[in-house]
């Protein structure tokens, strides 16, 4: 271990010296001779069976395996450096969409992350279809960092914080003590946040699913004017006008949670989508006295492939409660209207859906210029996704609040990944680590136990 640290220190010092030269040679030297040769190497020829010029780092394969339900991406190179990315565990169907991009990337220099992304980015879409592009981008940065001997956050501009704040995310969802997801009343909500308040991670912000983002839409009596849709429908399919009883139910549950949390821990609400604009305004105004961190996805979100910026603008102007949306949105262009109109107070892109780390950082910076905060989504992003969140969270501007923490599921994921801090979360934060790339690696011998037959060559 000491030798690895010493080598990294030497590589870092050399990289800093080269950057200090201020010349094109120095910048290319960050990746050794590989990046320098890339300018003269016809990368498209590699995909046609030609061998790259000596010293050129080139992509040789793009692979995808479903490990424990999560699509995992591996990009291999001719220099033996591999990079990994991960998509949400809810997207087990993603493999063919990942592999679609393979022919566009073979032969490219993976350290030219943006050039690679320009070839594939425009062929993604809103959640879930941007996930393949996002996971590939993670893997490219992982390779770039390893090739340079630097942590990814260094390549993204350098960190402004040494630890990154999280909010609960999967901590309660995968808690074995958690009650079944049928709670629709104040007692359930009070008990749940009490458990999270006492959890070992000591989070400082708790977000709770409520209203249409919870069981209320389907199971609470007389909750809304509409017919609840059954389990065979897409996630969060219910939508309609809220009844007075439904409105009171939400308010009573929030009141119960605030009694438990007081002013020690911030409370955010994941609300929909599903609200009518008039009901969203009414609910937000009713909840203003509770000093909520934000109310999320009232009108759109999740698997809704549109933004509705004008509706969000009217909602935001009607209340002091910070309005939040954005987990389903793909690419900076699709955040432009929300941000430029100041249609929300908080945005929540997911690094595993929005287009990757660099895309998320760009959006955060543009939002900061408009006085908008950012709290990235990430509940199902997995351990590699958590690593990506930490690296980009370290470099985002001061409008960053926290990212949504993903708990490994199944729990054996913790036995097949190395490189994360132990414990991962301390006092609601994750310390930023300095190992090259994303800084996490598979324990291949252990991970192979969980590969399906069709993926048995994934690590070869």
List the defining traits of the structure above.
alpha/beta, 460 residues, TIM Barrel, Enolase-like, domain 1, 12% strand, three-stranded antiparallel beta sheet, 2 domains, six-stranded parallel beta sheet
CATH class of the largest domain reads Alpha Beta
Distance between the termini: 25 Å
Strand content: 5-15%
The count of β-strands is 14
What share of the residues lie within helices? 25-40%
Give the structural class.
alpha/beta
Low-confidence stretches: 1-50
Number of domains: 2
Q: Could you give me the name of the CATH homologous superfamily of the largest domain?
A: Enolase-like C-terminal domain
Rg from C-alpha positions?
23 Å
CATH architecture term of the largest domain: Alpha-Beta Barrel
Quick summary of this structure?
The protein has 460 residues and is α/β, with parallel strands linked by helices. It has 19 helices and 14 strands. Strands 5-6-7-8-9-10 form a six-stranded parallel sheet, with helices on one face. A three-stranded antiparallel sheet has the order 1-2-3. Strands 11-4-13 form a three-stranded mixed sheet.
